[in-house]
Design goal:
Length: about 160
């Protein structure tokens, strides 16, 4: 099973989602069965570490994002992952525009797994520290829902 999180530049929301989901997989004993990655829709931050504010907010919750580096969504990603999860509607639209016609994966909004009325993770980049904490709260809730779905899929024989 393979999961890809996507946001605009891959320095705030999607690396946070990657880090949170990796930890939840480890806690559940599923890290060896699910590969996790993140990317950005655009090339602006390729090769850069996550935003310092995102790293600090995650570290306060025991999540280390320091080894992650931004990369851009690639055409091969559409066939390499089982879940392609966007942080907001614009990211999802960009993914749909790039997706091949024969795509047979789950491509949608990450917060759909959080059972919340608003399905977009707000971009904290131009805001203050509170925005990064809000992103973590939302991502943790969605990660729990995604983890439950994946756990069921892994237990169900195909």
């Amino acid at each position: 099973m393979r999961v890809l999180f996507a946001c605009l530049g891959n320095i705030c929301r999607s690396p946070t989602a990657e880090g949170v989901f990796r930890r939840k997989l480890e806690e559940r004993g599923l890290a060896h069965r699910v590969a996790v990655d993140s990317c950005g829709i655009g090339p602006w931050h390729v090769g850069k570490a996550p935003d310092q504010r995102a790293r600090e907010a995650a570290a306060r919750r025991g999540i280390d994002l320091s080894a992650l580096r931004a990369r851009q969504l690639d055409a091969a990603d559409f066939h390499a992952f089982d879940y392609l999860l966007a942080m907001d509607h614009d990211n999802l639209q960009a993914m749909h525009e790039q997706a091949p016609d024969d795509l047979d994966v789950h491509m949608g909004l990450f917060l759909e797994f959080a059972d919340l009325p608003d399905t977009a993770v707000p971009d904290p980049y131009y805001g203050g520290e509170d925005g990064f904490e809000e992103v973590l709260d939302l991502v943790e809730r969605a990660a729990d829902g995604l983890l439950e779905e994946i756990a069921v899929r892994l237990e169900t024989p195909r």
